[in-house]
Amino acid sequence: MSASRTIKATRHGRRTRGVTVDEAFVLIRAYARRSNQRLGDVAQAVVADPTVLPGLFA
């Protein structure tokens, strides 16, 4: 899904990949804290390849 489609979907309250933008932020922030990593680094990893973060949904 393109970035513009994601933003439009978010405005309409739709979920992308099963979570809202707010829920995704909470998940990414919690993962960064648990793994003692910078939030920006974790966010970049999610965009590049979310499969490299095994405990993201834990």
From TrEMBL:
Which GO terms of the molecular function aspect are on file? RNA binding
ANTAR domain: residues covered = 16-47
In Pfam terms, one family for this protein is: ANTAR
Query: Which superkingdom?
Result: Bacteria
Give the protein name, as stated in the record. ANTAR domain-containing protein
Give the source species: Allocatelliglobosispora scoriae
